[in-house]
Amino acid sequence: MALTGVLRPGHVALRVLEMEPALKHYRDVLGLIEVARDDKNRVFLKAWDEHDHHSVVLREADEAGMDYMGWKVDSPATLKKLAADVEQSGLATEMSWIPAGEHPATGERFRFTIPTGHVMELFAEKAIVGNNCGTDGQDINPDPWPDGLKGIAATRFDHCLLYGDDLDGSVKLFTEVLGFGIAEQVMLAGDKKFMIGAFLSCSNKAHDVAFIRQPVKGKFHHASFELRSWEQVLRAGDILSRTKTSIDIGPTRHGITRGETIYFFDPSGNRNEVFSGGYIYYPDKPVITWYDESLGPAIFYHDRKLNEAFLSVFT
Amino acid sequence: MKHTVTIENTGETFRCDEETNVLLGMEQLCRKGIPVGCRNGGCGVCKVQVKKGQYAKRKMSRGVVSAEEEASGCVLACKIFPQSDLEVEVVGKMARAIVAQQSASSDFGFTTTMKTNKPVEEK
C-alpha cells in the first residue's frame, strides 16, 4: 500500500466532569455511537463511518481536558519500529507499553509524552466493527449511510489542535520520527524562522494534528469531527442552537486548510469542532505559510480576526 | 426568584434567577463584565471571587479552580446560581484574557511571551 506508517488519528481520550451530560452531548448531539463501557467507567464511542471499534474515550474526572491521543499504524511490525524510533529520538519522555485489552478490542499501545506535554499513543490493532452500511453483510452492497443516525452525525474523529510550549520539539518528533508532513505553518513576520503554529498530516488530509505555541504544557484546544458538506455544517449549527449547546464561533471558514467550521463546547468545556472541506494533501505539496499578522483570516477567514476565546480558552 | 448580581470591577448590575448561572444571566441580558469562555466549567475564564451573597454551585474543573479557592468563594460564574443578591469581583484568567485581547491587536502575544524556545532550523 502507498499510505504506510502512521495511518490516522485512532482515538482521543477526554476527561469530562459529569458522564451523563457528556454522553448526551457526544451521543445525542454530536451523534457518536456508544460501543462499550468498561469496569473503570470509561465510555467508548465511534463515529458512524469509522470501521474501527472506537475513536472517542470519555472518563469522568475532576479536571476537564485531554488524557491522550492515539494513532493507528499499519502493522505490529511498524508499531515496534516506530516505538523504537521514538525512544531513540530522545524527544519523548514517560514511555511505556499499555497491554492489549486495556482499551476494549484493542491491541497493545506504545505511550509517550511529546515535548509540548501531550500524551500520545501508537497502536496497530483494533477490532473492525464496520459502519453498518452493508445491505447483505458487512461491506457488501452498502448503502451510502445507515439508518438510525442521531443529531449532527459526524462521520469520523478527524484531528486535534493542541497547545504547548515546545512546538519545535513536537513538530520535530512528528515530522522526523513519525513521518508526518507540514501542510501549513504559521510563522512570525518579524522572525520568519520562528514557528507559532504547525498543521501536520500523516495522510491525504489537510491535517491530522495541529499545534500552536502557547506557554503551557499538554493543553487541549479542540477535537474535530468531520462532516461531508457545508450544508451539513449549517445543519450542525441548527442542532447546536436547538440543543442550547455552547457555541464558540461559526459557522465560518478557516483560512488554514480552507475548512468550513463550527467551534463549540462539550458540557465540561472541552472544545469540539465539526468541519467539512479542505483539500487533499500529498507529501510533495508545497508548505503553505501564514505570518502572524495574518493570523486573523488564517484562523477565521470571514471575520478576519481571532475571537477572544481562540487563544485564552482551552482545557 | 430573581436576585441582583453586581460586578464590582465595572459596577455593572443585572438580575438573575436562581435556576440560571451567573454567566448565562449576564449574557442573556447582553451585559458585559465577566469574560465568557466555554460556559461549561472547564476553561476558568469566567472566574470570580464572590464578595457577598449566597449561591448554589455545580462541578467545576479542578484544573482551573482548586478546592481551597472553591471553598473561599473563588468560583466560576458559569457554575454558580444566585440564592441571594451577589457581589462578585472578576479575577484569575481575566487578566490573561485582557492581555490576550490587547496583544491580539498588535502581535498576538507571541513575540513577548512565546520566545522561550529556539527558532526552527532553516531548511
UniProtKB/TrEMBL annotation, chain A:
Keywords in alphabetical order: Aromatic hydrocarbons catabolism, Dioxygenase, Iron, Metal-binding, Oxidoreductase, Repeat
Organism: Zoogloea ramigera
Superkingdom classification of source: Bacteria
Protein name per the record: Metapyrocatechase
Assembly, per entry: Homotetramer.
EC annotation from Swiss-Prot or TrEMBL: 1.13.11.2
Catalytic activity from the UniProt record: catechol + O2 = (2Z,4E)-2-hydroxy-6-oxohexa-2,4-dienoate + H(+)
Residue stretches in coiled coil: none
Named cofactor requirement(s): Fe(2+)
Lineage: Bacteria, Pseudomonadati, Pseudomonadota, Betaproteobacteria, Rhodocyclales
Family per record: Belongs to the extradiol ring-cleavage dioxygenase family.
InterPro entries for this protein: Catechol_2-3_dOase, Glyas_Bleomycin-R_OHBP_Dase, Glyas_Fos-R_dOase_dom, VOC_core, Xdiol_ring_cleave_dOase_1/2, XylE-like_N
A GO MF term: catechol 2,3-dioxygenase activity
Domain VOC, first and last residues per copy: 8-125, 156-277
Presence of keyword Iron: yes
Automatic annotation (TrEMBL), chain B:
Superkingdom of the organism of origin: Bacteria
PROSITE patterns the record matches: 2FE2S_FER_1, 2FE2S_FER_2
Residue ranges annotated for the 2Fe-2S ferredoxin-type domain, each copy included: 3-94
Pfam families: Fer2 (PF00111)
Sample GO molecular function, one term: 2 iron, 2 sulfur cluster binding
CDD domains linked: fer2 (cd00207)
Protein name: 2Fe-2S ferredoxin-type domain-containing protein
Taxon lineage: Bacteria, Pseudomonadati, Pseudomonadota, Betaproteobacteria, Rhodocyclales
